[in-house]
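New to this. Look over this protein:
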Amino acid sequence: MKVLVAVKRVIDYNVKVRVRADNSNVDLANVKMSINPFCEIAVEESVRLKESGAATEVVVVSIGPKAVQEQIRSALAAGADRGIWVETEDTELSGLAVARLLAQVVRDEQPGLVLLGKQAIDTDNNQTGQMLAALLDWPQATFASKLEVKGTEVEVTREIDGGLQTLALTMPAVVTADLRLNTPRYIKLPDIMKAKRKPLATTSPAALAVSPGTGVRLLEVKPPEERRGGIKVESVAALVDCLKNQA
């Protein structure tokens, strides 16, 4: 079974995000970029499926400018077999545009399972996996905290309010990874060197016959308001008053 994993390039989660002086966007100059952490978990799970014998090939796909090759190579260093780069200069693609492009890649590759992160930490988007499943008319499971392939089905455990829910999906299927699905492995230098020799194919929206469209337009980005300092009150009554009128 082939597993296809989609990864997104985002600002590293350890970096403090800055906004440009003109509020046009987030300042990405000289900022460390990484694979979206939830996508990294999806890559790790796909590699574990291959190591267990449940999968035979892991293909990583990413969409964006040339810089996304760095994240594809990172996924290849983690154990994926080959990469696909969908070249586009637009870094503000909507979730639906990404889902349309991924859907065409999936139709071309015919994987048995598609894994994605449950959300992106930069835009907090959480809809690409669901849209992809709808476009393909495939079964889907979101927020997976456990995943097990059993014959022609994949059994997914997901966290819901009040407990856990277990779903059995007939493959091919789309699954999005939650934080507790696994802990991504540490990538060693020899693996990084080997990843440079793994195949990375390039395609484009035009080659895929998909028009991403312009569904989302960024108007302005503002930093959050500075947190105000605390105050001391003289009595319980004053505390209650503050909670009612100022909190």
Observations:
- The chain has one domain: 2-246.
